[in-house]
């Protein structure tokens, strides 16, 4: 009898892909050089002028005017307004912090189930973002700093039960600060007001969830999906008058330890600060 393969339990990510993921990690010893490079780009007129006007050079070609967006239907108008409002907010209010209600709305608008599982047609529950094969490789973790209805700690957002599950509780603010310094380089970087941010989101991918079907190509879909979620987070923030800023420079290994990833196929793709 032919052996039935259980693809769920076969290794599906190539060593060279793991090499690439390792190469793209940021370690503590590289943080200084990394932020110097970022500052060199951002403080240079030459680089900023050139990157702000980049376009693909096509030479001569026919051009057609697009129409204005003066007469949009109501929902499209709402989306247009959110697009105008969306931005990266790096400074947060000392007195005003976000509430559990703000966080609940934020998570629901950013990432939630929009259509339940239908056993008759074997379609997985649909979510507010598209996903290659409906496999949804991204998990959202929340590091709470100032949301007073919750303990200071690390949670996973359970999209199925609409609950935050506590993974790790910090003893006190000191332990939390140490963790933020280690994982987000909070003290070393002056890009974002880390101490006043109410909470941090961490977008973690379980690559096997996507790669068991798409092999190494699934890594692309996971990275894309983190992009979709972060854009949804920015739009959710704009709609709720919550400030947010993506964080690309983090200590991969330290975050993996803090969150307690179980497999090498779990990696952090992006973090995000939120606050008022
Ligand atoms: C993948 C990614 C990583 C980012 N990392 C950082 C970061 O580490 N620190 C920061 O201050 N902003 C970060 N940002 C925010 C960008 O700098 C910001 O989106 C960009 O300057 C455009 O500004 P806007 O979002 O206000 O339109 C990041 C954005 C993305 C998409």
From TrEMBL:
CDD domains: McbC_SagB-like_oxidoreductase
InterPro entries reported for this sequence: Bacteriocin_Proc_Enz, Nitroreductase, Nitroreductase-like, SagB-type_dehydrogenase
Recorded GO MF terms: oxidoreductase activity
Membrane-spanning intervals of the chain: none
UniProt superkingdom: Bacteria
Ranges of residues in domain Nitroreductase: 86-276
Name assigned to this protein: Nitroreductase domain-containing protein
Species of provenance: Aquirufa nivalisilvae
Taxonomic lineage of the native organism: Bacteria, Pseudomonadati, Bacteroidota, Cytophagia, Cytophagales
């Amino acid at each position: 009898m032919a052996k039935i393969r259980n693809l769920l339990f076969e290794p599906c990510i190539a060593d060279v892909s793991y090499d690439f993921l390792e190469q793209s990690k940021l370690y503590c010893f590289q943080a200084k050089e990394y932020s110097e490079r970022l500052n060199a780009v951002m403080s240079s007129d030459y680089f900023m002028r050139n990157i702000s006007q980049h376009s693909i050079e096509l030479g001569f070609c026919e051009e057609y005017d697009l129409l204005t967006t003066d007469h949009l239907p109501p929902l499209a108008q709402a989306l247009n307004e959110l697009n105008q409002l969306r931005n990266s907010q790096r400074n947060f209010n000392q007195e005003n912090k976000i509430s559990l209600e703000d966080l609940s709305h934020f998570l629901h608008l950013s990432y939630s189930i929009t259509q339940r599982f239908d056993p008759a047609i074997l379609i997985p529950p649909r979510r507010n973002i598209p996903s290659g094969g409906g496999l949804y490789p991204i998990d959202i973790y929340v590091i709470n700093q100032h949301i007073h209805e919750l303990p200071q700690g690390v949670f996973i957002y359970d999209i199925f039960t609409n609950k935050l599950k506590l993974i790790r509780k910090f003893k006190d603010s000191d332990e939390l600060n140490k963790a933020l310094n280690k994982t987000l380089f909070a003290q070393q970087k002056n890009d974002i007001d880390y101490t006043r941010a109410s909470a941090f989101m961490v977008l973690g991918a379980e690559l096997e969830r996507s790669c068991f079907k798409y092999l190494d190509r699934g890594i692309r879909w996971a990275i894309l999906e983190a992009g979709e979620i972060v854009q949804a987070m920015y739009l959710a923030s704009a709609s709720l008058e919550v400030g947010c800023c993506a964080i690309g420079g983090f200590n991969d290994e330290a975050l993996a330890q803090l969150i307690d990833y179980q497999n090498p196929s779990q990696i952090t793709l992006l973090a995000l600060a939120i606050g008022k």
